[in-house]
Amino acid sequence: MDVPSRLDAGRALEARAPAGPAAPDAAEADLLARARDGNLFAFDEIVKRYQRRVYATAVRIVRRHDVADDVVQEAFLRAHQALGRFDLSRPFGPWICRIAANLAVNHVRSPQAREEALPEAHAETPVRGGSPLVGVLETEARTELARALDGLSADQRAVFVLRVFEELSYKEIAEALEISIGTVMSRLSRARERLRVALTPYLGAAMARRAEGGER
Amino acid sequence: MSSHPAERLSAFLDGELSATDRAQVESHLRECPACAQELEELAAVDAFAREVPVQAPDGYFEALPARVRARVRRPARIPRPALWAVAAAAAVMAVVVTPVVLQHERSVMAPAAQAVPEGPAPATLAASIAPAPPAFAQSGDAGRSAQPLRPAKSEVHGRLQEREEADKPAENVLSKKQTNTADQAFRRDASAAAPAAPPPATVAAAATPAAAPPVPAAASRAAVAGFEEARTSAPEPKVMAETVEAQTAAAGERARDEAGADARKDRARPAERKLAAGSGAFSHPDDRALMTEKRYEALLTRPATSVAQARALRDAWDLFAHDFPADARADEARVRAIEAGVLAWTLGRDPADLAAVRTRGRAYLEAENAPQAARVRAALEALP
């Protein structure tokens, strides 16, 4: 992927995976309407707009590129088939991400996927700027985060991803994953708690950055 | 001090607690530095996770739109290059082995076929398995007739069940399912290529994937046609309870035989023909046929008792006809889209629905090939 090596990771992520409910956009509604009428170019545009975000959702849940790739394609395929039922006044992004999350969870839940070992440590982005010490710590922290995420169940990761990256409400998450709100709450709580414990040594720096920048 | 909120901290962070719970947690946090610290850390976990970007291999996002497009046009599994070599070898084997195998198949299947009321059993079976020219001619006529090509219900059911049985381990696996199928196909091909005599349907089925490459578009359309006709030529569910492989084998065989001649020329409208040609080869006719069938069956049984449902059904039939323009059921889908459109108007009296169904109806009746014109006219009579 086109990750500029020294770019602030936080900003890079914002740029390629806008989170949260976007205001329904007229141009997008038009694209979707044309895609629904069978215009493949219009649908192409939709794919281009959302592929990074959908991929991010999928890979954060399934933790493997090849599986995420399957999920992403399938999610777009499903979305295309269901466009006729989609309310064009609503934002497309959260919808397709919910589809992808659901597919991702079911994918991982399958017996075949379970047999496959979890991946080795992920290739992490290069260290961000600043002092070498901060860089080393951050790299370590990312490795630790990756390991902790691998240690979660896909169900937990799905809830975490939809909440933290897509900023869906518990109700929306519950609907997307076909679970109860209580389950959303407990899975999310457990996921965060495990990540918190794993990352405790590194969180001080993250909290300090957060305080100083007033942003992530 | 109240008890530590533990689990509720996470929901507190998200603003997802009830007013009472929130008040409790807030008052606890004021008294308990440990919990306050924990809350801070939980927030930091989220923030930290957001900082870590995801990475995909170089060029992935450049290629993805085209890959998705290909699947939207042709909802089949992703072809595996290595498969083709094996499949080609298998096809050669199949040509040699198939006649022998069919002989065997007939003798094995004869008892079941005897339950079929009319027609000599072995001949019926042959029609659904072998690429026998008479069967093809006969089913070609069936395709041209104005009969809606709707399969008997039990027939579809039996086959779907069968297929679902086969898919079971991967039930919720979605795209993975396709990979599975590919794997199965691969195994089939491999076994066909093996020196020992493989099970009958196996060899014939192995020819299916190989049928497409030489004359892609025509072959695929012929294959779909062959699949259709294999089904229409078999009169009884009993016979249809044959393995899906056998039927798709028939389709594949015919596709090979008919690769040059476009069997559907007179059925597809010009625009559709162009579309079908443009959409390239369906490398796996069996997949496509199965996909078509599942969707078709789902639509047949889909309820439409409200305006919204009727509209959705109308659009879904449209989409079906659009996705499978060369499929024999596309015509039925177009007619059903019109009928659903009429229903939508009847239920909602929305002028937009009226206009929509009129446009569809006119388009159907004005097309050069409108086998079910009478039915459409009858449906349109309900309109003012």
What does this entry show, briefly?
The complex is a heterodimer of chains A (216) and B (384). Chain A has 216 residues and is an all-alpha fold.
Write the layout of secondary structure elements.
The complex is a heterodimer of chains A (216) and B (384).
Chain A: H1 9-16, H2 26-36, H3 40-62, H4 65-82, H5 92-109, H6 111-115, H7 132-151, H8 154-164, H9 170-177, H10 181-213
Helix pairs in contact in A: 2-3, 3-4, 3-5, 3-8, 4-5, 5-8, 7-10, 8-10, 9-10
Chain B: H1 7-13, H2 19-31, H3 33-51, H4 60-73, H5 81-113, H6 121-129, H7 133-144, H8 153-167, H9 175-193, H10 200-211, H11 216-233, H12 237-240, H13 244-257, H14 270-278, H15 285-300, H16 307-323, H17 329-348, H18 351-366, H19 373-380
Helix pairs in contact in B: 2-3, 5-6, 5-9, 5-10, 6-11, 7-11, 9-10, 10-13, 11-13, 11-15, 15-16, 16-17, 17-18, 17-19, 18-19
Report on the structure:
The complex is a heterodimer of chains A (216) and B (384). With 216 residues, chain A is mainly α. Chain A has two domains: 25-118, RNA polymerase sigma factor, region 2, helix turn helix motif (Rna Polymerase Sigma Factor, Chain: A, Orthogonal Bundle); 124-216, Arc Repressor Mutant, subunit A (Orthogonal Bundle), CATH 1.10.10. Chain A has ten helices and no strands. In chain A, helix 5 (92-109) runs antiparallel to helix 8 (154-164). The longest helix of chain A has 33 residues, at 181-213. The radius of gyration of chain A is 18 Å and the shape is elongated. By secondary structure, chain B is mainly α. In chain B, 72% of the residues lie in helices and 0% in strands. Chain B is built from 19 helices and no strands. Chain B has helices at 7-13, 19-31, 33-51, 60-73, 81-113, 121-129, 133-144, 153-167, 175-193, 200-211, 216-233, 237-240, 244-257, 270-278, 285-300, 307-323, 329-348, 351-366, 373-380. Chain B is elongated, with a radius of gyration of 27 Å. The termini of chain B are far apart. The relative contact order of chain B is 0.09. Mean pLDDT of chain B is 61; it is low at 75-82 and 99-283. Chains A and B meet through helix 1, helix 3, helix 4, helix 5 and helix 6 of A and helix 1, helix 3, helix 4, helix 9 and helix 16 of B.
